[in-house]
């Protein structure tokens, strides 16, 4: 697959049967499949379709995150000499951050999750900053006012990708303030759309691939 | 004047002559006047009208901030036993913060200005946090992504008022992201509209008045 | 807990079990918990978890408002020498105003509820203005066109906090006109986001704390 | 002219020469012309074109409001047995209210202007309410948070037309909050667009015509 | 009741029991009640509560429109010597137009419904124009692009009130294009918010009252 | 040039010298050039650059519309056996409609301009409907509430293209209501962006080309 | 029926019984009916109502697309000598594109569906470009960033109609980015509203009719 | 300086004297300065202030792009073993792309500019794809519908950063459609705000630094 990004199937708006069919085709043709935004029925349909296909594929579900990862028997997952940090401000950011982490891992990056370090209590992120500095690329998931990506990008050298999360209500809610905060940030960073964990994780993975390739040149 | 807030004349959309007439009336009837958003021609017209009126009024202009303060001869400005901190993230926030400071001072508060402590470099605000903690009410002016009010409200006990500033371009620019960030803040704070320095300073002044009254009960 | 604001758990987007776990932890570590936006299942889960924990904690539910307050046995609630008025325009504003009242009360303020004084019939607010003037801080909840906070701030000396409510349909509905009315008010006031009763009540509580501290200095 | 509304020429976006030509044509064919949103050059061009046409037309300019009214010699202006009140919240509302007043007067209504009765000081409108109650239709011009139309419609029996004015800055500025406030009003009223003084005055004039016709049946 | 507008209870966001209680109180104190936006359960609750109250009140439900009208035994409904036309563009506009018609009728106007005369087929409105011209005030309900109010206001002398309806999808859908079309209309008219049938009907009723009073002076 | 659409140079945001250089290149390589949105300085620069180039090119400026058309000596303009009607609601629509007409003519269509037939006076469009029916494609330019495209599409068989014009102020102004009206139209039509005369004229020209090709097959 | 467009009944917001009644009336009066956005219950109600009517009408349902086409016994569907291509970027665009295809077919065009040629993989559209060039009019359905219509319009001579699809989440989601992309396209094309498959197909059908008429003149 | 990003001074909203002072300070303390969005007066003020300071600093102005780069005598600019491609769709994108290129170059990357490859003519980008594939990070600047970043990200392996440009008028104009297109892209990419050339170039530079560091480990 182009760029090492796994064939991803967005389950939203598709029936379980449709998703299962697309996933088995992806496994057959590319050796693996990644389903995102799957509810439990869809995840079950994928697992059962893969089982029916008779192959000894491994199926890895995360129902909170909504992902299903399928590896064909004998599929050799890539393993890069490069690390991605996935940082969250609060518990509401976990599912979206989880989507980013799964994709980065499938691209082969070593993923480090650093959770609940939102800026309302600065000590938390200051305590973890050395860990974040280990990464070659950093994804920062935050909803509401979304201040964390700006703070993190002021503390690390690696490229930072903001991942706005659709928390918050009223004006600027549903992740809009968090996205606009990323677009207006006084620190250098780029952003993806609200809840676009897949895109953030994949872009971090592409950076990790470039770094890995340079390391192993 | 009700609540101790000086009669304020918003110069925008009025001719210099109109503003000057309103200001001299305010001085005659209340002992002082506060003009906001005055350009140089308007400030000059006010100063000259006050001079023509023959009284020994004092005129205090700040052309960067756009304010003109006039005190009639013998006007006794209030002096409260309470302090307001006015904090800015960067230099672009200075004029709007200045408007807030002038109003709070006219209400009688002791005003402390703490500048250039934006979150892209956390050391700056951490260095000043003890000074901010001295205040009975805190105004925090910030544009672009407007993360500073959230961070400050996480560090102090006093009520914090966010003052979004119309910096920033593109989507979320002109202070919109900063305002929405205040509305979505994970810390407890209230907000005023973009660039509404007068309102932020006046509300901080009202809190200072309440504290002063309690202290002197 | 910082600023005397109780640990608040926003139930929206969390399962009853998760909320119950967070609440019992908060009770264990801080002596109390405040759950907001809880539906009946969540409130029941919290009550039952607290009971199971065996302690003689008191549980105070308001299902219309969506709050659950838990006090550990022996928890000494703060009691401030300062008052907060919570004013509503109509019956649709009651749940959101209720959230503000609960928080202010937990911070220790004496809370006075003044209801159904919307501006379509001016006599109602004029009849109650002396009662509102007793308070050290005033929260005014109003939806639709949200004119009440402006009128109240013109009648009292204490700081006023607008609490826009998500009533109203069509353009400017869901509280947007009410929020924008607060941002544009000709009277001095600050605002919180639409339906942010928790924030309005907490800010009023912070002002009450400052006044109480000054009174008891 | 249909409905008794004078032929109105919106000067914005037209050259002085074009406006003058349209105005003289209107005078020739209907006996009068009403130019709105004219700057001084345009008003002068109209006056001079009418003069050149040699007729003894009367020209009535209001440069603050931006209107020019031309009556051909011998034009008999209508005179209705019905009254329109035009109410403003503050001085910034005067030009737009003036446009409404001119149109209503040209339709033949008796127009009563009641100024500076904004809700930040309720005494002002309460002092004038008997005068407003004299009118058969009421136009209420207000900018910023636009609370006045709602308050007036709660005080009078006649139909009220809100006329939002493009004052105010930041979010909800330029009359948007005032328009949305009219759309969400808890009192019964209808509205026109921001700054649409011509439409508000014409609709009030149509109501006055209907009442006059009924009175004189 | 002020202005002859019946006490109206918006059922949305209230429980059937709450609505029924408010309605019986209104009947007791004013002789009638008007419930809007009632679903079937609410309408039934009102009917049954009125029955239980034992009085021989009449209950008039229109489940498509969502209204319930209750008249106490012996209540003398007003009857005005003035007419209101309620015009619709298509079948989707019927429920909202129905709300307007019920209110106008309760105020005492003679109401004429003229349906399905949208501008995509001009013959229909041209065929009905004489009937529309009979009215003293005209309400025009239209969704989607909302062109009909503009066309009608170009054809009649009476005041026209646009009533935008929340049909249409995509950009400008949910009545937004129809409302903006009313605000931008090249014809003279005023507007109410999207789906605000109550307000449109009440304003038309106020005009009818004024005309009736003039007729009967 | 692809599709027979002339090489068009949008002058906005370019210096006169840059536009002149692009135009002479286009004439050299394609035999003609079409400049849109040119102010007088730019139009003059193009005319002079073409003159300097020494060729006997013809230059056709329309300063009201902002177009400059240059044909190299000997350039054979296309001439199609197909007609485009360009219809306007009012005089404010003329410049934008003019841009559409110029482009359609350059593509080779016979263009018929039908002006000032806005829906506030239905007789005008009804008087011209036979003329509009002659066309193979119809462009309808209208600003403010933009009702005319819907009415025209209800009267003719040919494809209709709405061309919203940036007239109107307040909410829905600057052509937004007109564009949304086209998107929500109850008649079948497609639309271009606000003021996009070039695109509307070019699409009408493409339809004329298809019809011409079919006629001459 | 005017313009050869079948009488279309939008099922959304109507009960199955209402739709069935409208459909049978259309069949009786025009020989056919086209129901759009029908769920299964509605489609079944239409089929059964047509059956009950006893006539040997044919009923053609597409439940994925939501259309029901009914032809009365002996109805002679039009057949044009002209072709429409309906192109999709991805599988999410299929239902909306299907609506366009059904309408174009009912108008009599030969319809060619070309699927899954989104621009993330350019080879797909480049492989199919000769097929697209066969058509007399082209509808291009795309959601998310909606780049495909711009690319297709750069590759073909026939008029292109963009059909934005309501896929995508976050800012610019629900088809908004796709619609704005069509409005801003650097290629010449016109657009319909988000998901307006009926309008896109009908406009393409009108172009096909014009071409067919020219061919058969 | 942190992350190797030069101290950047945004000239917008500052006087020439202020910018010159900030620039000389930056040169004194960090060895260089980068001014962005400078008009000619500001650029001249910087050049002259640096000259006055007497040092043999080099000053590099690009007045079209609005940048001034100052290097102190003896400043050793970084030089990375990594390349950044900066791609534009059309000539309107050049200034913003230029800002990105200057920053990336100052960080030390080898920068390759690839211009005028917009998607309305696919051959252009297909011809240049091998050149783009040489880069370690790719910035793609595009306005209007902004389709180019999506197409490029479908053709290369390196991380792509979209740089939306504020071209385009009407709905979705001023870069909004281009930004939303990047947020909704079917290809993997991240984005910066409209016209944020500085941020795009700096992020690309950070990736280049990471790759360079890996290469030279
Ligand atoms: N800079 C400002 N921003 C917001 N409100 C202001 C400002 N200056 C004055 N005001 C308020 O606006 C009210 C009306 O101002 P005016 O338009 O001068 O009558 C004053 O009484 C103040 O309460
Ligand atoms: N109803 C509410 N509205 C707004 N903020 C709240 C509300 N309830 C709790 N919060 C705040 O949101 C923070 C995060 O909540 P949580 O998502 O539970 O971690 C809490 O610490 C409170 O400061
Ligand atoms: N007035 C206009 N409105 C919209 N698009 C235009 C206009 N004039 C030219 N164009 C298109 O914009 C493209 C790019 O223009 P340019 O920026 O000059 O390269 C041209 O090839 C035309 O297709
Ligand atoms: N053209 C630009 N666009 C966006 N951010 C910028 C630009 N130029 C400088 N900056 C950033 O804005 C920060 C604050 O700039 P200043 O307002 O000059 O203090 C700088 O440190 C840069 O990170
Ligand atoms: Mg956050
Ligand atoms: Mg900031
Ligand atoms: Mg209210
Ligand atoms: Mg007002
Ligand atoms: Mg309609
Ligand atoms: Mg029009
Ligand atoms: Mg697409
Ligand atoms: Mg582009």
What report would you give on this structure?
- 8 copies of one chain form a homooctamer.
- Chain A has helices at 16-30, 40-52, 94-107, 122-133, 148-153, 176-183, 197-215; strands at 8-10, 32-36, 58-62, 67-71, 83-88, 110-114, 137-142, 160-164, 190-191.
- The first copy, chain A, has 217 residues and is of the alpha/beta class.
- Chain A is globular and about 50 Å long.
- Chain A has 2 domains: 2-71; 83-215, Rossmann fold (3-Layer(aba) Sandwich), CATH 3.40.50.1970.
- Chain A contains 7 helices and 9 strands, in the order βαβαβββαβαβαβαβα.
- In chain A, helix 1 (16-30) links the parallel strand 1 and strand 2 (32-36).
- Chain A starts with 7 loop residues before the first strand and ends with a helix.
- A 5-stranded parallel sheet of chain A has the order 6-5-7-8-9, sandwiched between helices. A 4-stranded mixed sheet of chain A has the order 1-2-4-3, sandwiched between helices.
- The interface between A and H is medium-sized, with 35 and 35 residues.
- The complex binds adenosine monophosphate (4 copies) and magnesium ion (8 copies).
- One magnesium ion (MG) is lined by residues 89, 118, 142-148 of chain E.
